[in-house]
Amino acid sequence: MRQKVTELTDIVIKIGSSSLTHTSGMIDLWKMESLVRQIANIHNSGKKVIIVSSGAIAAGMGKMHLSERPKTIPEKQAAAAVGQSTLMHMYEKFFSEYGITVAQILLTKEDMYEESRREHCKNALNALINHRIIPIVNENDVVAIDEIKVGDNDTLSAEVCKMINFQSLIILSDINGVYNKDPRHHEDAIQLYNITDLSELDAIDATDSISSVGTGGMITKFNAARLLAESQINLIIVNSQVDNILNRVLAGENLGTFFNFR
Question: How many C-beta atoms surround the C-beta of residue 146 within 10 A?
Fold first, then answer.
């Protein structure tokens, strides 16, 4: 089954806040550089890559010297405004070391679901990819309120994958994959390496994230899986802290959880 992973050529990679930051909220340069190096190698192998990156609010927290994630919309917007430029500056700096150009794409729910705006987004992404530029997508937290907000980047990355008709989504998380129960609370939890039927998720008690810098959890990842299943797009959930995880999973190693919908 994992042989199919080695054949993937079009990949959306979602990077969660915990994969980019210290628990303090500041950008972890070591984590970021490691992921960029892996993605650069994947890009240079000829694959098409889109990044959906969290971390703007977390980066803003560090810049604004906040000890916890903002709770009000204006404070979140302020942190995102400060953090987004910091985040993109670091991406540009790291990718430029490998001769790769990146582009920032900020989206709202209307961009994803209103037909003409969705088509413009799709065309822009395709143009960037054709020029061998890596798009870095995030929700436009500075202007997005509940009515126009996708809500989490697991869902956003799945919607981007569907919009651009890519083959697979890789979600980088702080957990090794999907377990039959929460491994943080149950020592006998068993990891599920391959899932082919969404009914397997019904028996799992998914819990939300306990991270101080992120908004997603296993629930949002399951929702992403359901969105992708409709279009027969594969999903892989892996732990970003495993050494060289992206290159290894794309080489076919049995790491993380592989949702095979094709």
Answer: 8
Q: b/e per residue, 205-227, with b = 16+ CB within 10 A?
A: ebeebebbbbbbbbebbbbbbeb
149 pLDDT band, cuts 50/70/90, is low
Pairwise pLDDT comparison (242 vs 204), residue with the higher score: 242
Closest Cα to residue 51, out of 64, 37, 36, 41?
36
Torsion-angle region of 248 (φ positive above 0: left; ψ -120 to 50: alpha; else: beta): alpha
> Quick count: other Cβ atoms within 10 Å of Cβ 97?
11
Q: Please give the domain boundaries of the chain with CATH numbers for all domains.
A: 3-259 (3.40.1160.10)
The model's pTM: 0.90
Residue 43 DSSP label: H
Count Cβ neighbours within 10 Å for each residue of 184-196 and write b for 16 or more, e otherwise. Answer: eeeeeeeebeebe
Q: pLDDT (tens digit, 9 = 90+) per residue, 180-219?
A: 877 777 788 888 899 988 887 877 766 544 443 344 477 8
Whole-angstrom distance, CA of residue 125 vs CA of residue 160 = 10
Cβ proximity of 117 and 72 under 8 Å? no
Residue 48 has a pLDDT of 97
